[in-house]
Write a structure and sequence with these properties.
The chain is α/β, with parallel strands linked by helices. The chain has 12 helices and 8 strands. The protein binds ligand FVH. The site of ligand FVH has 22 residues, from helix 1 and helix 4.
């Protein structure tokens, strides 16, 4: 096989994401064997050149590289628990917890397979569209990653984050958790203007630009976490920010908006201030979240 010959692989799971992945490998000329619990989902891909397998075991037997894109960790067990994995390179793109990824790696290795876990930072329409900016975190066997790097890069860019199989899932969930925090803030902002004569469509670019301008603050947080000095480069200290929180809560009250998304964060800021950390940035909240 030369570097220019698209290598064969098997894909288990043809839901929205699996189907998007399959289309990109087929379009790039990779011989692709597919399996799905509900076989009808393979029909359209078969018309496009994929080889449907009758069972998960047959799909695994067909190729060394086996990619999984199933609903959750239980579905991986349901599909593969009785399948011979000896000598296989398993790449699991199913969303799981870091702990599930680590035990799945041990499970695969006990069965004689190499294991790589993946966390997909994209939605199906972004797959195969470079400019959409989607990518996949990978962690686990570095040898497996290097061996199949070119094939794995076909649907979306790859970012390898280490030999700990749980790290891809951890990066995935960490980024998505931050995203939900941003969605929570945006929901509160839209609620504040909801009953006013303010067009949300005119408001949205203001909100998006502000969030983008503020997003760079994560680099300062990271530098402070690394140095341990949370007063390093502080622009707006904790005391000043806590002093401002009643204004936010009173505005919510005045607009008839529940503070339930904002109040927990303000509570953590107050707790940190009460520990005598007036001159710090907001970074101390990170430590308050860590359970003892
Ligand atoms: N779609 C998205 O936006 C997100 C983007 C980020 C990554 N996620 C994760 O990707 C995994 C697959 O997601 P999906 O979008 O393909 O999900 P579905 O369309 O719901 O397809 C689920 C497939 O899993 C099969 N399946 C479910 N249970 C079992 C089982 N017990 N045994 C074998 N296969 C099972 C299901 O088969 P069927 O229902 O068609 O028979 C689909 O192939 C997922 O981890 C996302 O979190 C997607």
């Amino acid at each position: 096989m030369t570097a220019h010959t698209p290598s064969p692989l098997s894909l288990l799971g043809l839901g929205a994401m699996g189907t998007a992945l399959a289309r990109t490998w087929l379009a790039a000329g990779h011989p692709l064997t597919v399996w799905n619990r509900t076989p009808t989902r393979a029909y359209a891909l078969a018309a496009g050149g994929a080889k449907p397998a009758d069972s998960a075991a047959a799909a695994v037997a067909a190729n060394t590289l086996v990619v999984l894109c199933l609903l959750d960790d239980d579905s991986v067990g349901a599909a593969l628990d009785r399948v011979d994995l000896t000598g296989k390179d398993l790449v699991n793109l199913t969303t799981t917890t870091p702990a599930q990824a680590r035990s799945r790696a041990a499970w695969a290795e006990e069965r004689g397979a190499r294991y790589l876990d993946g966390g997909i930072m994209a939605v199906p329409p972004m797959i195969g569209v470079r400019e959409a900016g989607g990518y996949v975190f990978y962690s686990g066997s570095p040898e497996l990653f290097e061996a199949h790097r070119a094939t794995l890069a076909v649907p979306a860019d790859t970012t390898y984050v280490g030999g700990d199989a749980g790290f891809a899932a951890l990066h995935d969930v960490a980024l998505l958790s931050a995203m939900y925090g941003m969605f929570a803030g945006a929901a509160h902002a839209f609620a504040l203007i909801r009953r006013e004569d303010i067009d949300p469509v005119v408001f949205a670019p203001l909100l998006a630009d502000w969030l983008a301008a503020m997003s760079g603050s994560v680099h300062g947080t990271a530098a402070q976490l690394r140095s341990g000095d949370y007063t390093e480069g502080v622009v707006s200290n904790l005391a000043m920010q806590v002093a401002g929180t009643p204004t936010f809560l009173a505005t919510a009250e005045g607009q008839g908006v529940s503070p339930e998304l904002l109040a927990p964060y303000f509570g953590l800021m107050r707790r940190r201030l009460d520990l005598g950390r007036a001159e710090e940035d907001l970074t101390g909240v990170v430590d308050l979240l860590l359970r003892q």
